[in-house]
Amino acid sequence: MSSPQSTPGTPLRLVLTSLLRADFTVFLKNRRGLLLSIILPLFILATTNSSTSTHNFGGALFIIGLAIAYGLVSASILGYALTVARDRDQGVFQRLRVTPAPTWTIMTSRLTMQGLANLLITLVVVIVGSRLHHISLSAGTYGLVLLVSILGGAVFLSIGQALVGLVRSAESVNAAGRVLTIGLILLGTFGQSGTLGPTWESIARWSPVGAVMTLFAAVLNLSTWDSHDSLNLLVCGGYIAVFAGIGIRWFQWDAR
Amino acid sequence: MIGAGGLAWIDEQSRSSRPEYVSDTGLMSDDPDLVRRDWSSARSVEPLAEVIAGELFARISVPDRLETVEDAHGVAELIAEAVLDRFVVSPRPAERGDRQVARADAPDADVILEVRDLSVAYGAKTAVDGVSLRIARGEIFGLLGPNGAGKTSTLSAIEGLIKPQSGTVFLDGVDIRRHPSQAKAKLGVQLQATSFQSQLTIRQIVRLYAGLYGVAPSDAEITEGLKEIGLEDEASKPFKQLSGGQQQRLSLYVAVMHRPALLLLDEPTAGLDPQSRRQLWSRIENIRQQGGSIILTTHSMEEAEAVCDRVAIIDHGTLLTAETPKDLIEKHKDDPEVRKVAHGEVTLEDVFIGLTGSAIRE
Between chains, do A91 and B193 touch, taking CB under 8 Å as contact? Predict the structure, then answer.
């Protein structure tokens, strides 16, 4: 009880700073999860480096887009959603909620850290991918890629939020998250390559992974931007609105 | 005290318009000093009962004798109904089932927490049903009840963790539903199952929660604080590596480091060894001496009897009674249900079992 007495109204800046500092510490200590989210896209980049593979996936830019999308799927669904579900199971959120911190600050801090992780994954994949596929990118393109990574990350974070909104226990979120991640990756890989036929190719193109990877490919070569890419931008916005809406509407702070 | 004239006034006012003041126990008068009185205790109500009885006998003609005791009970019940209709604003016991509904009122006007007609429901299941209580500054108040009685739900509603179906919670005059952040800044909470982020060290946890309560302690202040609770050597360890007693000490420290006006402890001694329990009660007593009020839930009747100024017994979501432990035992020591379970001198546990039943709850 030696600490100084609190002010009557807790300053919002101090609340947000405290939450961000704690979540950043957790982010740094979760290096293994972050590494796994980077290794998967790097593996994709390495295994699709041949000219045949590059051609099958629509070119090097699409492969980089696909690799980034996979990294974001992995980080958002297996990383973010599972961490939220575990903390909810353990009562971490309930402990935070009895403090004066508004609930939106708790989630904003978490999403900010996940956004940071998404930017890091995107940067690493773009740098490695451009080297492997001998593409030179301008500073402006890097800026656009980072912007799209925020948008793409938001698509998969909203899916992760919907997952923890609809599924209560951490075990169930883990299981459902793995199935969802594998499903999205397979749909992206085989659907986009045309192996499963035109119907699946079309489904894959407008799936969250397909929409995000197409956007990445488009900003990596901005001169080819067309109405299809603009439509993709709208589709991504739609995914964010729908899944975030579900995730916020049905999210429970307590697992019971 | 209400005199014969006062009663006549109430009679007249109730016919024409609502009186100006209504006390928390439901008594009405034009005199604010009158309604501030604690009319909930039997001793305070006794003079009022005498006045009412006197007025009744003076105004109406009654037979000299009633034939049977049952007849006398019948008349008494009718009079009681009339008194309830006339004086009591809050729902009558009969409207909440057959169980006796108690109001736990602080004897002091210096109220830190006021809960009015709180009801909490989970779907179709009612967990808390019209609970009202007032806690005074510096008071240690025990909320007792079997498993699933509604203790944690009541605390959760006070903490703002769940939205009550109805009722209000005022913490130091602040409505917790309208101004949650302001109210929570005055509240310290130790939950039944506390967990902090597993990747954070003790020092980082203290810094985080201090910030959330608007306190920005220096490293030296954190070290000093951890030293006070004997955790200075554990400052770099994660919470999960602490023993049960250490975890409990840290949870309590985090709950009180902003010096809350009211501290809520949900089963704080569960799973602690006797040494840790003794130390915890000593810390709780220190908090009270510094002016803090405490509400705690516990299954240990001995601890409640030893530590709490007043205890309330809650069952099936309804507050059955709220008294000092001594008064509670005194009041119920001759109840047949209590006598049945007592072995020798009646204890608080005997009263508890007598009031809530012997059946094991899930």
Answer: yes
User: Which pLDDT score is estimated for A188?
Assistant: 78
Range of the domain at B345: 111-186+260-356
Predicted confidence at residue B361, as pLDDT, reads 66
| A14 and chain B in contact, CB less than 8 A | yes
Statement to judge: residues B18 and B116 lie in one domain:
no
Average pLDDT estimate for A166-195:
88
Q: Among B276, B285, B228, which Cα is nearest to B254's?
A: B228
Do B64 and B127 fall within a single domain? no
B158 inside domain: yes
Nearest beta carbon to residue A15 from set B159, B161, B212: B212
B-chain CB neighbours of A99 within 8 Å are 184, 209, 212-213
Q: How many domains does chain B have?
A: 2
Is residue B18 over pLDDT 50? no
Burial of B62 (0-12, 13-18, 19+ CB in 10 A): exposed
Domain boundary among B56, B89, B122: B89
- H helices then E strands: how many in chain B? 14, 12
3-state class (DSSP) for residue B171: strand
Which residue would you say has higher pLDDT here, A12 or B94? A12
Put simply, whether A237 touches B (Cβ < 8 Å) is: no
Environment class of residue B220 by beta-carbon count within 10 Å: exposed (0-12), middle (13-18) or buried (19+)? Answer: exposed
A26 and B211 within 8 Å at the Cβ level: the answer is: no
- Going from the C-alpha of A241 to that of each of A76, A247, B349, the distances in angstroms are 16, 10, 56
Q: Nearest Cβ partner of A94 from B161, B198, B257?
A: B161
Q: Determine the structural domain holding residue A85 and report its residue range.
A: 12-249
Tokens read off for B35: 């309604």
Q: How many domains does chain A have?
A: 1
Cα separation, B146 vs B313, whole angstroms: 9
Given an 8 Å threshold on Cβ–Cβ distance, is A87 in contact with B196?
A: no
> Is the separation of the CB atoms in A250 and A165 below 8 Å?
yes
Q: Is the pLDDT of residue B25 over 60?
A: no
- Between chain A and chain B, the number of residue pairs with CB atoms below 8 A apart is 120
Residues in A touching B193 (Cβ below 8 Å): 91
CB-nearest to B197 from A3, A5, A26 is A26
Instruction: Kindly determine whether residue A90 and residue B195, on different chains, have CB atoms separated by under 8 Å.
Output: yes
> Same domain, yes or no, for B160 and B12?
no
B237–A contact, CB cutoff 8 A: no
Give domain status of residue A6, yes or no: no
Are residue B28 and residue B173 in the same domain, yes or no?
no
Per-residue pLDDT for A139 more than 70? yes
A254 in B contact zone (CB under 8 Å): yes
CATH for B334: 3.40.50.300
Does one domain contain both B24 and B117? no
Q: Which of A7, A13, A18 to mutate to test the interface with B (most CBs of B within 10 A)?
A: A18
Asked if residue A209 is part of any domain, the answer here is yes
